[in-house]
Amino acid sequence: MGVVHRFIGREGAFGWEGKAPEEYVTETAKGASINWLIGPREEAPHFAIRYIEVEPGGHTSLDNHEHEHGVMILKGKGRVLMGQEEVEVGFGDILFVPGSERHRFRNAGDEPFGFLCVIPRL
Amino acid sequence: MGVVHRFIGREGAFGWEGKAPEEYVTETAKGASINWLIGPREEAPHFAIRYIEVEPGGHTSLDNHEHEHGVMILKGKGRVLMGQEEVEVGFGDILFVPGSERHRFRNAGDEPFGFLCVIPRL
Question: pTM to 2 decimals?
C-alpha cells in the first residue's frame, strides 16, 4: 500500500506522525524549519513535497536557483518576494515561482507562517 | 514575477481567482471536479498541482496508472483506497500513492471532500 503520514494538529504549529522538522539553516534564513513530507524516503521518483514553517519575525533564504516552486499557503500571514515584487499571502493562496527567479518567504504576522512547497526531484 | 492564484474562501467549497474547476468525467467517477492550480498554463516544467473536490456520496475513478500521486487532504472526510487497503483521512493527512498502485478517493462525510494532488508532468 501507499504511504500515509497522519496530520497532528498542534496549537501554533503543524506536524505529522513520524516526521520531524529540520531547522532550515542557511546564511540568510532566520527562524525557519523544513519537514520533508514526500520525497526520497517515500521513493518519490519525480517530485518532493515539503512543509516549511517560519516563526514570527523570520524568513527563508533569499534564493535564486534553477528549479521552480509550487506553493500553497496553509497557516498564518506572509510576504513573498518573487523577482522584484513582494506580495501578501494567506491561507489557500497558490504561488508558482519559476526557475531562476529570486524569492524569499517572510512571516508577516504574529503566529507561525506555514506553506507546502513542491519541487522537482533534484 | 511568478504567479499568484488568490484563494477564494466559499462556504462548502474552495476556489481560486481566475481558476474554474472542471467536472472530472470518467466512466467510474461520480460527483468529482478538478481544478488545475499549477500546470501547463503556468508553464510548470516538471509537475502539476491540482485541487480535486468530491461531493458527498461521490468518488474519483478507480485508477491504476504509471504516474504517482502526492496528496494533502484539505477539506472534509474521505476514504482512500490504495492497493488492497482503504484508509480514513481528514485535514492535513499526507498520502503518497506510488505509480501503478490502484487507488480511489471517496467522500466519507456530508460536506465536500477536497485535496491537493501533485503529479509529475505527463
Answer: 0.95
